[in-house]
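Aim 2 progress update. The chain analyzed this quarter is reproduced below.
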Amino acid sequence: MAFLVDITSHLNHLNAQLQGRDQTVSDLFAHMNAFQRKLVLFKEGFSFSHPNLAHFPACEEMRRDVPECNKTFHKYRADIETLQEQFKNRFQDFYAMQPQIALFTDPLSATVSEQPPELQLELCELQSDPFFQAKGNERGILFWRLLPESRFPLLRDFALSMASMFGSTYICESNFSTMKHIKSKERNRLTDETLFHLMQIGCTNIDIDIQSIVHLQERPQVSH
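Predicted structure tokens:
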């Protein structure tokens, strides 16, 4: 039970990291990589005759209260190995995309020969441009916004495709909750078009001065 409490705590922490807005596939991949490295550390800790329980506080407390339990902790190494295998199988798509994720995360350091042929020429120009070299401290979407579409059309399309990938269902679930709030039983006669516009307003991060927009209309529908 103590081991279950500790390992579940680590899984809950990972689950919280994978939620939230404004996370790209590369961010989620970083969280997954970090957790799998933690699993390697955990497995090594349970390999010794005197296990290292620094990251398992419930197990450490159990060892202090019942010292004879120390002889049984090594068996949880097999459980961690099983967890490693499950994560490897479940998230194998991430590893297949690793070159693309590396390119999206840090295009200035990406290996050109490992990228798709259609991107290689533009990538050579990008990595040789002193202006973009000076912007190397920018990361992710902030960097890709600097690229002019006329000069790097294929790289821009690539960045848009990576930025638009859904790494989790969090955004879908939160938007569904927004829709349920908008289309309540008191407003069940909203048309699909009006609902679409309300969803755009409800889900955007852009500050909108709705009052000013309403007052600019000739005959504003204040009931809406």
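The mean pLDDT is 86. The chain is about 60% helix and 0% strand. These observations will guide the mutagenesis experiments scheduled for the next reporting period.
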